[in-house]
Amino acid sequence: MPPRDPDETHRAATPLELLFDLVSVIAIAAAAAGLHHAIAEAHVLDGLIKFAGAFFAIWWAWMNYTWFASAYDNDDAPFRILTMVNMAGALAMAAGIQPFFESLDLRLIVIGYVVMRLAMVAQWLRAASHDPGHRRTALAYATGISLAQAYWVGLMLGQPLLSETSFYLFFGLGVIIELSVPVLAERQGTTTWHRHHIIERYGLLNIIVLGETLLAGSMALGKATGEHFDVALLQLALASLVILFSMWWLYFSKEDQLQEERRALAFTWGYGHLLIYASGAAVGAGFGVLVDVITHHAHISLLAGNYAVAAPVALYLIGLWFVRDRFVLAGPMRHVLPVFSVLILLVTPALALEGVAALTVLSVVVRSQVACRQAPA
Questions:
Q1: Is the Cβ–Cβ distance between 180 and 145 less than 8 Å?
Q2: Distance CA 356, CA 65 (A)
Q3: What is the domain count for the chain?
Q4: Quick one: which H or E segment has residue 311?
Q5: From the centroid of its chain, how far is CA 160?
Q6: 3-state secondary structure of 176
Q7: What is the mean pLDDT for each group of 10 consecutive residues in the chain (377 residues)?
Q8: Are residues 169 and 207 part of one domain?
Q9: Looking at the domain assignment, is residue 66 inside a domain?
Q10: Which of 88, 159, 267, 285 could be a cystine partner for 35, CB 3.0 to 4.6 Å?
Q11: Distance CA 58, CA 94 (A)
Q12: How far apart are CA 323 and CA 98, in angstroms?
């Protein structure tokens, strides 16, 4: 398993990586469904906390595999088999998300997550054996991931002894431990990840995440054409498409997502995408909530349902500003997306979902004009 060439031409996602994404989307859909039902039942804060925890586990396992594969994917039999073990863990984790939302039962999520992460330990040990130049980095990854998994198993076993507040605090500590592993490991020597490959892989996951909004729009359209016709559901389906297309357009701009291969920028960009992905999935959950509100199956108001869409759309814009626009745009206009983020939250009570859709489209227009004017001749 020698390192891949970071300057390799025409590097693209492999069929195995796409299959891995397909498995990941099942877990993402389960987390979004849990958030949807929690908000609809007026358990907003509880649902958001659990969604954040579940989504972090899904995203973190996906992200670690993606950056490793960018540096070391040799597509041999052991790599394929370990990737498939990773997928099996992802499916177990997805199965554990509903019990986690219902009773804070962490067992199946931890089991699936540990399976995924131990598969990565084996991958890093292979890299350490075959890449002497990055042996210290690979061993640091393997050691750090192993220690983190011991922590999660300990938290799972000790969970019955903890209060809910204590559990969340210890969970947060585990997140910090996980986030620190790549930071410490890469100080031993930067791995040979491929910039264009990473940009493509992140973009593909964003498309998968945005698919949650398509699903909600389809659900609204299906109910609108059923026995109990309601024009509000048609408006909801249309708004979901407008917002989805706008979010896609904003992400896939002509400017590269990751401008340089600097380690600090790579961490900012790589970690910052958690906000983009989580908010993108939450938009789909929010539209699901609105379907429940309109069909009288929710315990919250229409305004709260509108904010279930508006708030994650606003966070999505903030995420894009954080990982890209503040680096690629210049002057005060580099803050155009945060401005629209605030406007979306302010107009929601007065203009409802139509206002959110209109402002999201307008953010695409304004941001594109700014980027065109600042582009080098």
A1: no
A2: 35
A3: 2
A4: helix 302-320
A5: 29
A6: helix
A7: 91 94 90 94 96 95 96 96 96 94 94 96 97 96 97 96 95 97 94 94 93 75 68 89 95 83 89 96 93 91 96 97 93 94 96 95 96 83
A8: no
A9: yes
A10: 285
A11: 8
A12: 31
